[in-house]
Amino acid sequence: MAPQLKRYVNAQYILKEVQRLKIVRGHVTESYLENLEMVRLVVPKLRIRYPDTVTRRLWLDANPDIGAMTVDVEPDGLRLDAAFDLENALFRHQNQRVYGRRSHPLDDLDTRFDEFVHRPLERTFVPWSEFHVEVSNETYETLYDNRYIKTPYSSWQVLQISEMAEMGVHILVNLDDEKKLESALRAGQEGHEMPLGPIRVPFTPIHLLRDFATHEAALDAVVWFSEESDEALSQ
Predict the structure, then answer these.
(1) What is the pLDDT of residues 147-200, one digit of tens each?
(2) Is residue 178 part of a domain?
(3) What confidence tier does 1 reach under pLDDT thresholds 50, 70, 90?
């Protein structure tokens, strides 16, 4: 059974669908999505990223028994209050059976949250490894965490990934040849070049990439209508 369409889904949802639909052969990890974002083929709709000091305070609140932090944390104030309010709003929306039906906090963003939410397409790419924030403390001398980084996609971007999977230059090489396999694995390193072979350059993904950009608003509207319809029928 296909999952319901949703306007905000996480990376694990996307990866699960990529594997279920066999868009990419073999096991895929978040590095695949990171690479798609890096080359601007499939970019998340939004990203929630708190300043490091705020992230540490959120982490400390969720782990009160670890003792004092050994790195700077956000003091009490309006910025910290806004971060807690955003986290609570997201949690309550994800648990509407308990808290009641409510609009998604990312649909009509409170201006207090502007510092924490941005569109990755409008910013320079940041390697996902940089999202790990140091949360070292008295219990754990050196510790990093990335649980408070959130990267929402839309369900329709699974379709986008399926079309972008063919983007690029395809070289036909017999990798059963150990020397060619080694060259392919080390391509780009000093003294190693990609082995030669027949080249295929598919042009259809180029046109589709432009079409997705043109019709993004319409795709968002279709997903929103489907999600709201499903929620109304489930009441």
Answers:
(1) 999 999 999 999 999 999 888 888 888 888 888 888 888 886 766 788 888 888
(2) yes
(3) low
Instruction: Give yes or no for residue 2 having a pLDDT over 70.
Output: no
- List the end-to-end C-alpha distance of the chain, in Å, as a whole number: 21
How much is the pTM?
0.86
141 within some domain:
no
Q: Tell me, yes or no, whether 218 lies in a domain.
A: no
Q: Containing domain of residue 182, as a range?
A: 174-198
**Total count of domains within the chain:** 1
E strands within the chain? 47-48, 117-118, 133-134, 144-145, 170-171, 199-200
Domain-embedded: residue 194: yes
Q: CA dist 23 to 20, 32, 71, 158, 163, Å?
A: 8, 12, 43, 9, 9
pLDDT at 193: 80
Extended beta strands in 75-234, E state: 117-118, 133-134, 144-145, 170-171, 199-200
Query: CA 89: distance to chain centroid?
Result: 20
